[in-house]
Design brief:
Strand order of the largest sheet: 5-10-7-9-8-2-3-1-4-11-6-12
Shape: globular
Oligomer: single chain
Structural class: alpha+beta
Radius of gyration: 19 Å
Distance between the termini: 44 Å
Largest sheet: 12 strands, antiparallel
Strand content: 25-35%
Number of helices: 7
Helix content: 10-25%
């Protein structure tokens, strides 16, 4: 496929893109979450799973965050990365992990869900405003074996596609060209264990902001950019005709649940084209884009609020899901029934 960068393009500012450890053909990104109507119940539920992420096969990177979803439920999430899928397999097949998950009750005041994807390295791209040695990061690039070299492939529409190596030889066309959610009926999902067959070439984005070391730009970001970003995520969560299957606006936390001065959005789209179309042309993202560049054009000095994202396009069969006692608007549950939501227990 042809690249979209303008001939002779020179970015206006430096940016950095992760290079995975040598020999890494694929890595795992897993979300394990507890869902409840009350924030303390969700926090207690996720804390009960904390010990599972320790031991010999623990993840290489472990983050935590919380969000309130479009149904008003509180969700607390472990976001875990393994750079060896076989290590993840050994972890999730271990007796402690299998028994803990299998014994989760399918009724009561809390639910649990997990979404796990094995991401081929050639179907992933990242972009950072800062080098790791200058600004600590969450996400996959905090792993010490991941490099963050400067990249010239940015600062134009379509650069994200060009940073995905597979896009040079694959169209990445969606198996789900139109996302039409089924009507939400909680009695279909509460009290049950469900899996969903995820269509091929869905796109996953985790995009983040960190103002913990900000002095020059901190207040401008919090006052002028963050509210616009939050409105954009809220739009995606409420408007499936955008092609967004699920959008989560997470406040990041330390492992014990203490709030951090950073946030991230995790969102699933029906395809990379749906994601890039929203970025390139929808009012809500153009407002985010404009607010960011208005902030940095003030000339106060070097940018001291960090931004980064990870985008992946997942081939068929690389995403597994399970929802235990969750409401019908959780994750992939709104997919039409012909995508094979099935009862597992």
């Amino acid at each position: 496929m042809p690249r979209t960068g303008p001939p002779g393009h020179t970015p206006r500012f430096p940016a950095y893109s992760s290079r995975l450890p040598k020999g890494t053909d694929a890595f795992v990104f897993a979300q394990y979450a507890c869902q409840a109507r009350a924030a303390d119940q969700a926090a207690e539920g996720i804390a009960a799973l904390a010990e599972l992420f320790t031991g010999a096969h623990r993840p290489d990177v472990l983050d935590r965050g919380s969000f309130v979803d479009s149904a008003g439920a509180h969700n607390v999430v472990w976001l875990a990365y393994w750079f060896d899928p076989q290590t993840y397999d050994r972890w999730q097949q271990s007796e402690s992990v299998r028994s803990a998950w299998d014994q989760l009750p399918a009724d009561g005041p809390v639910g649990h869900w997990r979404e796990v994807c094995v991401i081929p390295a050639e179907r992933n791209e990242t972009l950072h405003t800062h080098r790791r040695e200058d600004y600590a990061t969450s996400g996959l690039s905090q792993y010490e074996a991941v490099d963050l070299p400067e990249t010239p492939v940015h600062d134009y529409w379509g650069a994200a596609r060009d940073r995905i190596d597979a896009s040079a030889v694959e169209a990445l066309e969606p198996a789900l060209p139109v996302f039409e959610p089924r009507p939400a009926q909680e009695d279909e999902t509460l009290g049950r264990r469900l899996t969903v067959e995820v269509p091929g070439n869905v796109a996953l984005i985790r995009t983040a902001q960190d103002w913990s070391a900000g002095t020059l730009y901190r207040e401008k970001y919090l006052a002028d950019v963050k509210p616009v970003k939050d409105r954009g995520v809220d739009f995606l969560a409420a408007n499936p005709d955008s092609g967004c299957i699920a959008a989560r606006n997470l406040d990041e936390q330390s492992p014990d649940g203490s709030p951090l001065q950073r946030a991230c959005t995790v969102a699933w789209f029906a395809s990379l084209d749906h994601l890039l179309t929203w970025c390139r042309s929808h009012r809500t993202h153009l407002e985010i884009y404009a607010s960011f560049f208005q902030m940095v054009s003030g000339g106060e000095g070097p940018l001291d609020v960090a931004f980064w994202h990870e985008v992946s396009v997942l081939p068929g069969g690389s995403v597994t899901t399970e929802y235990v006692n969750c409401h019908a608007r959780t994750g992939f549950l709104p997919l039409a029934t012909h995508h094979h939501s099935t009862v597992t227990a």
